[in-house]
């Protein structure tokens, strides 16, 4: 499983292309050959998946009960707008206009790595989401989310 690390500020050019940071390309050795898949995130953002991670995710979705209307609705929403991205010779990807509009991305964006995927936010949206990131807020959230997990420490 891919383990991506980092947070990167990027810019779109006039054609909606973004240069994938070299650090990320090194973390995804097959990205130039296999490309990425982009889809809508759960909030107002996009998500990049290395192709092999997208294939793993969709294989899991394919195992869900397709007779359940909630499963069908979720799969439909999750895959809506999903698009394969190929890096050009300059290391850029062209982001679909409809997805950029969905995420409110115009020029400046933030790539936020999360384990096997990369969230793609408008800079303004990401700054609003993260707020001050006060120590108390993060501490409370960690206690609530992680408090019952025994890490064997």
From TrEMBL:
It is found in: Cytoplasm, Nucleoid. It holds the Pfam family MraZ. It comes from the Bacteria. InterPro entries: MraZ (IPR003444), MraZ_C (IPR035644), MraZ_dom (IPR020603), MraZ_N (IPR035642), MraZ_sf (IPR038619), SpoVT-AbrB_dom (IPR007159), SpoVT-AbrB_sf (IPR037914). The gene is mraZ. One of its GO terms (cellular component) is nucleoid. Keywords: Cytoplasm, DNA-binding, Repeat, Transcription, Transcription regulation. One of its GO terms (molecular function) is DNA-binding transcription factor activity. Forms oligomers. HAMAP family: MraZ. Gene3D superfamilies: Transcriptional regulator MraZ domain. CDD domains: MraZ_C (cd16321), MraZ_N (cd16320). This is Transcriptional regulator MraZ. GO terms for biological process: negative regulation of DNA-templated transcription initiation. Belongs to the MraZ family. The keyword DNA-binding applies. Residues 7-53, 82-125 form the SpoVT-AbrB domain. It comes from Sphingobacterium detergens. Its main location: cytoplasm. The keyword Nucleus does not apply.
């Amino acid at each position: 499983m891919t383990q991506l690390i980092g947070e990167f500020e990027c810019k779109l050019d006039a054609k909606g292309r973004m240069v994938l940071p070299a650090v990320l390309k090194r973390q995804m050795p097959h990205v130039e050959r296999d490309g990425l898949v982009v889809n809508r995130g759960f909030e107002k953002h996009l998500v990049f998946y290395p192709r092999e991670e997208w294939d793993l995710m969709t294989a899991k979705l394919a195992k869900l009960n397709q007779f359940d209307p909630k499963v069908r609705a979720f799969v439909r929403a999750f895959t809506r707008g999903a698009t394969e991205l190929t890096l050009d010779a300059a290391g850029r990807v062209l982001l679909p206009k409809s997805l950029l509009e969905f995420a409110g991305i115009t020029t400046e964006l933030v790539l936020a790595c999360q384990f096997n995927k990369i969230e793609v936010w408008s800079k303004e949206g990401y700054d609003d989401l993260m707020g001050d990131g006060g120590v108390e807020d993060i501490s409370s959230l960690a206690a609530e989310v992680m408090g019952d997990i025994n890490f064997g420490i």
